[in-house]
Write a structure and sequence with these properties.
By secondary structure, the protein is mostly beta strands. The chain has a single domain, classed as Rieske Iron-sulfur Protein (3-layer Sandwich). Strands 1-9-8-4-3-2 form a six-stranded antiparallel β-sheet, with no helix packed on it. Strands 5-6-7 form a three-stranded antiparallel β-sheet, with no helix packed on it. Strand 5 and strand 6 form a beta hairpin. The longest helix has 13 residues. The chain is globular.
C-alpha cells in the first residue's frame, strides 16, 4: 500500500500544468449572447459536418462557426490571434483552415491551434450551447 501512495504522490507532484496563454490583444471583450436557428437559410452552412460560416456582427472582427461532426458547433473569434486589431487583422476560412492576411499565419478551425511555426497564440474560443436547431453563441 505504501508503494501505491508513493506512486500516486510522485505522479501528482511530477506533473505540472502549463497555463493557457491568453491573447493579450483580445482582453476585455464586451459580453454578448447571440442565438441563431439552423432552420433559417442564412445558416445552411452549419447544417452539415464540416460546414462553416462567419457572422460579421459578433466579436471583434466577427465569429467563425464550424460544424465539427454534425452535432457539435465550434465558435472562434475572427481576429488574427497574434496581431493587434487593424485593417488586415481579420482571418478568413479556407476549408478547415483559418488564414490571417497580416502575417499569413494559419490555424485549425477544428482545434483553434496554430499551424504555422513560431506563432504564439491560437484562435480565441467562444462558448456554444445547442438545443436542437437553436444555437447560442456567447462569451
Amino acid at each position: 500500500m505504501k508503494w501505491l501512495t508513493s506512486v500516486v504522490l510522485l505522479c501528482v507532484l511530477g506533473c505540472k500544468s502549463d497555463p493557457i496563454q491568453q491573447n493579450p490583444y483580445l482582453n476585455n471583450l464586451p459580453p454578448f449572447e447571440f442565438e441563431l436557428s439552423l432552420d433559417l437559410p442564412l445558416y445552411d452552412g452549419l447544417r452539415f459536418a464540416g460546414g462553416s460560416i462567419t457572422i460579421e456582427q459578433l466579436g471583434v472582427k466577427g465569429v467563425h462557426l464550424y460544424n465539427l461532426d454534425g452535432s457539435q458547433i465550434l465558435a472562434w473569434e475572427a481576429s488574427c490571434p497574434n496581431q493587434r486589431p487593424s485593417d488586415c487583422s481579420k482571418t478568413t476560412i479556407n476549408d478547415i483552415i483559418v488564414e490571417c492576411s497580416c502575417d499569413d499565419s494559419t490555424y485549425s478551425l477544428v482545434t483553434g491551434q496554430p499551424l504555422t511555426d513560431g506563432v504564439e497564440y491560437g484562435l480565441f474560443n467562444y462558448g456554444i450551447r445547442r438545443s436542437g436547431n437553436l444555437v447560442l453563441i456567447y462569451n
